[in-house]
Amino acid sequence: MIRMIGKRFLSAIPSLIGVIIITFVISHTLPGDPAAYFAGPSATADSIAETRARLGLDQPLIVQFGAYVGDLVQGDLGRSFNSGQPVLTDLVRRLPASFELTLYALVFAIVVAVPLGLWAAVNPGSWIDHLCRGTVTAAAAFPSFFTALVLIFVFYYKLGWSPSPIGRLAIYFPIPPTITGFFTIDALIAGDIGTARAAMGQLILPAISLGLFALAPLARMTRASMIGVLGSEFITTARAEGLPRRKILWTYGFRNALLPVVNILGMIFSFLLGANVLIEQVFGWPGIGSYAVEAVLTSDYAAIQGFVVMMAVLYILLNLGVDILNMLVDPRVRYDD
Fold first, then answer.
1. Which secondary-structure segment (H or E) carries 328?
2. Which of 115, 187, 264, 314 is the 20 to 30 A CA-CA neighbour of 106?
3. CA 225 to chain centre
4. In this structure, what DSSP letter does residue 79 have?
5. Pick from 280, 271, 100, 236: which is nearest to 176 by CA?
């Protein structure tokens, strides 16, 4: 296990270096001059040049890259032009908000997609199979931000069932003491049921909007995997031996069908973490997605690069976690050969 983890980290280094180079080049080719932006609308050419020199943007690109890599090796992602704070501090402060939203969206997708895919696989060609296909098509057809706007219009504006779609918590609720960074969990730990309920209320619409994005691949993968397993010879043998249908489906079928689903969970979580950029903008969610959007709009190079590097590291760690989970689900799986 330890050898496999070490090999995975070593194999990820070239990809991480590529991500750092590409992100640096692309972020510095974005339109806009951050020096002019931060010098202000009434800035003169001299004040813009002074700001550019202060930010180190007057240096050749290769010099800027060398300085950036030197700081990166020491764990320094740079300082954000917008907030004036270290980028790592900003990202760590905002990351729990994005993790909480992404995790609830993934839970919503799993709770809906896996039973739906299994039910459709067990009853191919039935109305539930057609419902599964229709749901998958509809969920994949609409962009997540459009779904979010429709949900806000219906459940907040028309019906009034949802709280104001701004932020993680309404202003008249106290922010719970930070333990996990998840407002819903921290409020429960603090025994503040009202705040926990309010935080959950703020999460429902953005989590559903984001979760629908993941529902389609999860349902399709579950259905296809279960159909493949149910057509296997060992399932035919189990049926021929007269084993109960429930035991065949859950003990032999579902466990074997679970492996491909687990394989894509890590990838889907990573996609959701990146895809929540628009959802965070729509709902005023103070996560790393909205932070990245603000950084792009203001050409905040350090913040853009820090966001992408953090996403790359998270992607590597999530895939490593999925590999370990695969070995636990199916002991035949080995990655250290």
1. helix 301-329
2. 187
3. 24
4. B
5. 100
CA dist 279 and 98 (Å) reads 10
Tens digit of each residue's pLDDT (9 = 90 or more) over 213-263: 888 888 888 888 888 888 888 888 888 888 888 888 888 888 888 878 877
Q: Which two tokens stand for residue 94?
A: 């905002």
pLDDT over 70 at 274, yes or no: yes
Q: Would the pLDDT of 27 be above 90?
A: no
* CA–CA separation, 271 and 28 (whole Å): 24
pTM of the model: 0.79
Beta strands in 149-203 (DSSP E): none
Handedness of CA 123, 125, 131, 137 (dihedral sign): positive
Query: What is the tally of helices (H) and strands (E) in the chain?
Result: 14, 0
pLDDT score of 9 more than 60 = yes
DSSP 123: S
* pLDDT tops 70 at residue 334: no
Greater confidence (299 vs 106) lies with 106
- Could you tell me the two tokens for 279? 């959802």
- H or E element at residue 273: helix 255-283
Instruction: Give CA torsion, residues 289, 158, 108, 192, to 10 deg.
Output: 80
pLDDT, tens only, 53-83: 777 777 888 888 888 888 888 888 888 877 8
Residue with tokens 């709902």: 283
Among all chains, which residue has been given the structure tokens 């007057």? 58
Amino acid at 162: S
C-alpha span between 86 and 90 (Å, rounded): 6
60 Cβ neighbours under 8 A, 6+ residues apart: none
Residue 14 CB burial class (10 angstroms; 0-12, 13-18, ≥19): exposed
Q: CA-CA distances (angstroms) from residue 174 to 165, 179, 208, 283?
A: 17, 15, 25, 19
Q: How far is CA 96 from CA 88, 102, 109, 181, 261, in A?
A: 13, 10, 20, 5, 25
Taking phi over 0 as left and psi of -120 to 50 as alpha, with beta for the rest, 178 belongs to beta
Question: Cα torsion at 123, 124, 127, 130 (round to 10°)?
Answer: 140
Mean pLDDT, residues 2-30:
76
